Amino acid sequence: MRDVAVVGAGMTNFVRRALETPKELSYEATKNALDSCGLQLDDIESIAHGSAPDAFDGIHQKGEYLADGCGGFNKPTMRVYVGGATGVHSLIHGWYHVASGHFDTCVVVCEEKMSSAMPHAQAFFKTIFDHTTERPLDPTLLWIFAMEMKRYMETYGYTKEDMAIVAEKNKNQGIKHPASQFDTEVTVEDVLNSEVMAYPVNRLDVSPVSDGAVAVVLASDRVARQITDQPVWVEGVGWNLDTAYWATRDLYYPRYCEKAAWMAYDMAGIRNPIEDIDIAEPYDPFDYKALHHMEGLQLSPKGKTVDLLKDGYFDQDGEIAMCPSGGLMGVGNPIAAAGTMKIAELFWQLRGEAGERQVPGSPKLGVAQAWGDLMQVSSVVVMGN
Amino acid sequence: MGNMEKWVSGGTSVSEKDIKAGDIFHTFDSLDCEYTWDCGKAIGKYLSELKKGNIIAKKCNECGRIMLPPRMFCELCFRPTDDWVYVEDTGIINTFSICNVHWDASRVEEGEDPPLPAVIEINGATKGMGILHLLGEVKPEDIKIGMKVKAVWKPEEERTGAITDIKYFKPY
Fold first, then answer.
1. What's this model's pTM, rounded to 2 decimal places?
2. How far apart are CA A343 and CA A380, in angstroms?
């Protein structure tokens, strides 16, 4: 197995209702990533890409449709799709292409355009539930988030205000990201006063609906140093899938995330993640999920996460910078692309190129994580310089 | 920010107004998606028992779990499950939500009852084995985790062998 580095990254702005097609968004991100490391498409040997439900675009088997925009024409191209976990899983999928020795270079590109589906992409989530035992109840995806958030808060005595601190922190951090779809500061009060979508979830507890694409370029150890002086290495990868009988799990804790994290940490030789990890990009489509996942990622003791959050432990200049990118809450949530945005953020952070968002003290190790399907799958990538 | 600015493409936002005004290309597909889903052996029996007003589970003698919804194989032990077990039509609320949004993202209107989804741990099944269902005959503000609830069944002649043969669960 060969060492694999990220050598370039690029993205589009995350926006509501982009005029670009999914292919055009994919092209922008892919081209930007290639330009960032001075490569041409001819230099790329394989393409790994990801996108979440086909239903959003009304194009079935979207992978093949997107391939042109991803640079996949006449190249070995594969799509990965595990719902919200796709963005990080696609990196793992690209990592295999290179680690296997089959290719020296691979572009990983993830795209999502949520705005095509009318009147709202939310409606298409109904079909992820079991058709016989759940769908007749007219479920919305908000239900399972709301119920998980409630269970999580109840277990540890966390309050709505506690969760809103994450929304405030990530959204305001996201303003520093040039591709963010937000430019307005929010406060805990704003979050608590926003429309109640599904108690205990208010509108500002949720990430926005977004369009966008993100790409990164992978290279083997053999060629990475020829491409850049500052490769960022994929130190560990992990993934795990829990049962689709989601109501039979205790929703207060993401067990699948813990298993995925230890798989990645073991590979990276990390024994004490709290000590070793400098930057964490946990998947945060809802504010509570950032904290839920910090516990799953072994970066915070169960039930102590809000205390650490309030103590500034997870600030940009804290012990472990949590979502310095601004996360999905702060930058936007084009589902698959949002996970890859976290990979790109680690790349920029570990190279010291994150501008206003730069975590001080020359961070050495970062972890990115994404989560999806029926709240049951996590993908985790550890990156180091 | 390094040289990231030059990488960022110009995204363009379109407002809801532009769509309503017809300034945006728009197409409508009506897909006639009909499915004859097989319920399978376990869910088939589960549904036929619901029609009779019973909740039935399946036990794995290896791990001892009494599972809902019932299944023909135990996903933990990866072996066929064993006995059918009738469980209660009562349980406790594991978690819940008060939802102001319908499945299609439309808002619950003034005066309309919000959907009250819950995970309900059914008495007689293994602790922690919940199912998704709805709550009813309860004020949203009175719902608590740990509350005891009981199934409210449709009248026998209206049951069709579906999860909706239980209208909802109410406190008792």
1. 0.94
2. 10
